Amino acid sequence: MKEVEIMPSVIFLGTPKFGSVVLQGLIDAKYDIRAVVTQPDKKVGRKQVLHESSVKQTAKANNLPVYQPAKLSGSEEMAELIKINPDFIITAAYGQFLPTKFLNAAKIAPVNVHGSLLPKYRGGAPIQYSLINGDAETGVTIMQMVKKMDAGDIYAQKSIKIEPEDNSGTLFEKLSIIGRDLLLDTLPKFIDNTITQVPQDEEKVVFSPNISKDQEQIKTTMTASQANNLIRGLNPDPGAYLLFDNKRLKVWQAEVSPDKTDLPAGSLVSNKKRFALAFAGGSVLDLLEVQPNGKKRMNIKDFANGQGSRFKIGEKIIND
């Protein structure tokens, strides 16, 4: 009779789709998921419809127990979870600090799937900052969880090139798959004692705090490349915007023009078959997809033929 392999037990913590892809990978690999922890349901949109996280939806579809404490530390849920005493505690974009007492409940290790090449971009928005800063590459780190944010030893890393057409949404999707596969390659090494861990170089630490409201605005002090990187980094959420004619204009897609201009930053360069704006250093940005305040997204041709047609070349139409 063939011996049945007993898979390690896991408490999984995550919230967005990045986490749900990793969770589904663990489920498909037959890990024993004892509990799933995710952020509380939240109201979204104008109608404030209550929305379940992607991780919760995946957990429910697989009949897994779900915990949703507003704050894990000191909660009744944490006390219950500690009693599970799993082999692994695994997080992937959960969104809360985890108390040391909870991390110590893992019999083998607490492990995090982080969307950057640590020690670069510790914090809550690593994927966004890799785009905003114009990086050539990014990747995933499988790391030890410790009390200090994203400061644990590195177990494994894998890098990918950031393509010119990438935005935050496409990178999240790519890195979630890489993170899933890298985690599944790494966990067995704990079992057979072949795991290695490398301390992070503290001199190379870069932080990536959550995106603030102020960071969402495209400023005319930016070059066209910097503006385009911000647009890519904040697409699809929360979106970058211009103060166009003193009103918010979200920009979902743009491209840097090879053209140069002597017009002041914020001026209209062209609204004939394109909608081009002057930015710092004489650089020019072509808008491709926009969303006027209170309206739906539209391609730039429709915008240029409507609102954009009433402005003159050289007119300063962007405010800071």
Automatic annotation (TrEMBL):
Name of the gene: fmt
Domain annotation Formyl transferase C-terminal: ranges: 210-307
Ranges where the Formyl transferase N-terminal domain occurs: 10-183
Ligand binding ((6S)-5,6,7,8-tetrahydrofolate): 116-119
EC number: 2.1.2.9
Pfam family, one: Formyl_trans_N
Highest rank taxon of the organism: Bacteria
Root EC class: transferase
GO molecular function annotations of the record: methionyl-tRNA formyltransferase activity
Job of this protein: Attaches a formyl group to the free amino group of methionyl-tRNA(fMet). The formyl group appears to play a dual role in the initiator identity of N-formylmethionyl-tRNA by promoting its recognition by IF2 and preventing the misappropriation of this tRNA by the elongation apparatus.
Name of the protein this chain belongs to: Methionyl-tRNA formyltransferase
InterPro entries: Fmt, Formyl_trans_C, Formyl_transf_N, Formyl_transf_N_sf, Formyl_transferase-like_C_sf, GART_AS, Met-tRNA-FMT_C, Met-tRNA-FMT_N
Catalysis: reaction(s): L-methionyl-tRNA(fMet) + (6R)-10-formyltetrahydrofolate = N-formyl-L-methionyl-tRNA(fMet) + (6S)-5,6,7,8-tetrahydrofolate + H(+)
Family: Belongs to the Fmt family.
Alphabetically ordered keywords of this record: Protein biosynthesis, Transferase
